[in-house]
Amino acid sequence: MMLLPIYRSAVRQFDSRVRAVRPEQWSVSTPDDDWDVQRLVQHVIVGQSVVPDIIDGRPANFSAGSSALTGPGLVQEWAAASTAAVEALSQVEYRDQLVQLPDGPASVEELGWRLATDLTVHAWDLARAVDAPDEFPNDLLAHVLEHARESAGSWFRPNRYSPAIPVPGCTDDLTELLALTGRNRWWRRSAANVVA
Questions:
Q1: Closest C-alpha among 112, 96, 122, 172 to residue 147
Q2: Is 190 within a domain?
Q3: What average pLDDT score do residues 135-160 get?
Q4: Which of 146-172 are b and which e, b meaning 16 or more Cβ less than 10 Å from the residue's Cβ?
Q5: pLDDT per residue over 61-95, tens digit each?
Q6: Number of domains forming the structure of the chain
Q7: Which of 61, 75, 87, 136 is packed most tightly, with the most Cβ within 10 A?
Q8: Residue 154: is its pLDDT beyond 80?
Q9: Is 193 inside a domain boundary?
Q10: Domain limits at 60?
Q11: What is the pTM of this model?
Q12: Which domain CATH number covers 105?
C-alpha cells in the first residue's frame, strides 16, 4: 500500500518547514492570499487534528484548535496533531471504509490522499514564505500529483482554491501540482504581498 509511506513523507515535509520558522516570520505573508504563516500553520493543524474523529465516525470540529497559540506553541500543537493523525490512519484495516467529510462521504484512502496533497502544497507555501528549501522527494510529488490530477474537479473547488493555472505539457511535477491549486511556482514575497 503506497498511501501510508507517502502520507508520512508529506508529514515530514511540512514538519521540517514549520520547525524552520524563525520568531519574526510568523506574521509574514504566504502564497495563500490573506494568510500569514501563523494562519497557514493553524489551518494545517486543524486539518490534522480532526483526522482521528473523522476515521472514528465522530463529528469533526474544524473550528477548534490553535487560534490562541503562536510560535513554539503552534509547533508543539502541530507535532501532537500530526502524530495522532498518522496513528489513526495507520490503524485503519480497510482503506475503502467510508468516512464523512465536509463535502460528502469518501473512502479512508481518498482522505489519506487529500491529506498528503494538502500537506505537500502547504509545505511549499510555508517554504516559500520563510525562505526554506522548496524541493520535495520525487516519489512524493509523483504519487500526490497522480491522485490530484484524477480528483482535481472535486478536490480543488473554486470556493477553496484559486483557479488552476495552465502549464505546458513538459512541466515538472511540483509546478504542475501547484498550478492545479492556483499557485505560481515562482511566487516570492515582496512589499506588495506582505501581510500587515
A1: 112
A2: no
A3: 90
A4: ebbeebeeebbeeeebeebeeeeeeee
A5: 776 555 667 788 999 999 999 999 999 999 998 88
A6: 1
A7: 136
A8: yes
A9: no
A10: 3-136
A11: 0.91
A12: 1.20.120.450
Q: Is 179 inside a domain boundary?
A: no
The CA-atom distances, in angstroms, between 135 and each of 22, 66, 126, 139, 190 are 19, 28, 12, 12, 21
* Residue 160 DSSP label: T
Asked if residue 161 is part of any domain, the answer here is no
Give the Å distances, CA to CA, from 14 to 94, 107, 151, 164.
26, 24, 22, 23
Each as own residue / partner, the long-range contacts of residues 37-41 (CB below 8 Å, 24 or more positions apart, any chain) are: 37/126, 37/129, 37/130, 38/70, 38/74, 40/122, 40/125, 40/126, 40/129, 41/66, 41/74, 41/78, 41/126
- From CA 73, how far away is CA 14, in angstroms rounded? 16
- What are the pLDDT digits (tens) for 60-70? 777 655 566 77
